[in-house]
Amino acid sequence: MILITGACGHIGREVCRVLKDARRSILPIDVEQDETAGVLTCDLRSEVDLARLFQSYPIHTVIHLAGILPSAFQTDPLMGADVNLRGSCELMRQSTGRAKRVIFASSMSAYGSSSTGRALTEDDPAVPDEPYGASKRAIELIGEALRKKKAFEFVTLRIARVVGPGIKKTSSPWRSEIFEARPGLESISIPFSPKAALSLIHVEDVARALVALADAAEMSSPIYNTPVELWEAMQLKKIIEEARGVRVELGPETAHGGPTCDGRRFTREFGFQLRGLREHLSCPMSTGPDGARLLGKGTNVP
Predict the structure, then answer these.
(1) Residue 73's domain spans which residues?
(2) How many structural domains does the chain have?
(3) Contact, 269 vs 257, CB < 8 A?
(4) How far apart are CA 7 and CA 210, in angstroms?
């Protein structure tokens, strides 16, 4: 059985969908219960809650997605640290000797927030310069130490900027709006300069990458960057306007896109193919209770 934390989140919902479609046995949990999706309520900071889960279910793999996101972390750094650090540590404590593999959803924020002249690989130093990225790097290091002690197999996926429909909680609504049909939406604001380089990955590809790590017989590295598409903001604006017929406004010249990452290690090792954003954007729009969701097949990107 695969335990999925943060199952009600943007990535969590898609991971659950992919695994359910494959008829896999899953145990989705979140701090917010969703009975319609079969999501159990669990606070990762609660030793009692987690111990009960591991005692009641045959959990062999953990996909750890739960956490406080960057904007909320900045608003309440103590809460962010409590959830992202203490909650993750308690999860790893309960996983020790029980789960075979723990897959940690980290972030390219582990590389820092500065724009980079080239795409960073896993061999580049992880030098976070703000609390959210530092919390991700701390759990990476703790997980790697536990892996060396053979507590469980531990692997980190450093996730680039995720786009896709259905994002409920975000300070960057454009990442979802570009895929959703919303009545009255006259423009979309992408807060980066026209020449900003953006490392983007669709939520469906993130889910497939996480499942690939869950299914891998072995892994050569404890850390992988997600494969990405690199887009200049001006180019992204052009294809969105062509595909959606909605005006896109970009940010000031000083608004860079942060670091860019190189995901070729993951692509080579797992034979992974991205489905292109251009294809996702060209799919017909539809609406639903919590936003449109695109189901079209995408093109492969090297």
Answers:
(1) 2-301
(2) 1
(3) no
(4) 13
pLDDT tens digits, 36-86:
678 999 999 999 999 999 999 999 999 999 999 999 999 999 999 999 999
Pinpoint the alpha helices (H) of 125-188.
Answer: 131-148, 174-177
Lookup: tokens for 291: 């936003």
Alpha helix (H) ranges present in 167-232? Answer: 174-177, 203-215
SS3 call for 277: helix
H helices present in the chain, as ranges: 10-21, 47-56, 70-75, 77-81, 88-95, 131-148, 174-177, 203-215, 233-244, 264-270, 277-282
- CATH code of residue 96: 3.40.50.720
Contact 9, 30 (CB under 8 A): yes
Query: Using CA atoms, how far apart are residues 44 and 30, in angstroms rounded to an integer?
Result: 9
DSSP code at position 276: P
Would you tell me how many other CB atoms lie within 10 Å of the CB of residue 272? 18
